Amino acid sequence: MHWEAAAVLALAVLAGGVLLLYFKPGWLRRLVRLLPLLRRLDRHAAALEAHPPARLRGVLWLSMARYTVFWAQYVLFLLVFTGVAWPGAVLTVPLVFLATTLVPGMVLTDLGVRGSVAVALLGHFGAAPAWVLAASFGVWAVNLALPAAVGAVILLTARIRIRS
């Protein structure tokens, strides 16, 4: 078996295990209590037990929809700005999301982390760093800066109406 097939198989087994523990929170709590390093997460694991499976399924579907929207935006920005072939963009964006999830940061530093990770990963596909950063900025602007600006205008307008 080639290493690529082994990696895909390992990821599939890991994803299946995570889903199993998500929908069987009692098993998750037993596992958390069994491993000393994870005992501090017991109260978080207990929170899953309070929700019926239908609610857990709904949350999972909403999470997948949100991820798909962010993924599609990022891929489209990369295709427009960088000219990277779509298979490279489609496969690299989840790695960018994974790396930015693993690196702690705040909203403002997230842009730099996401951009530098994207440049490092997409550089292998011949993408110019400036255009990769432009794509990262575009996703950040559409999902964070634009809604924040709209929210600020709404709040300022509401505050002015309340005072007058």
Descriptive report:
The chain is mostly helical. It folds into two domains: 50 residues, no CATH class; 94 residues. 83% of the residues lie in helices and 0% in strands. Helix 4 packs across helix 5, helix 5 packs across helix 6 and helix 6 runs antiparallel to helix 7.
Strand-helix topology:
Blueprint: H1 3-23, H2 25-34, H3 42-49, H4 53-81, H5 86-102, H6 107-122, H7 129-163
Helix pairs in contact: 2-3, 4-5, 4-7, 5-6, 6-7
Entry summary:
The protein has 164 residues and is mainly alpha-helical.
List low-confidence stretches: none
Listing every helix as H and every strand as E from the N terminus to the C terminus, the arrangement reads HHHHHHH
| Fraction of residues in H or I helices | over 70%
What overall geometry do the principal axes of the alpha carbons give?
A: flat
What portion of residues belong to β-strands?
Answer: under 5%
Look at the structure and give the mean pLDDT. Answer: 88
What structural class results from the helix and strand content?
A: mainly alpha
Through-space gap between termini: 72 Å
Q: Summarize the main sheet.
A: none
| Total count of domains | 2
The number of helices is 7
Query: What is the strand tally?
Result: 0
Structure characteristics:
single chain; 164 residues; flat; 2 domains
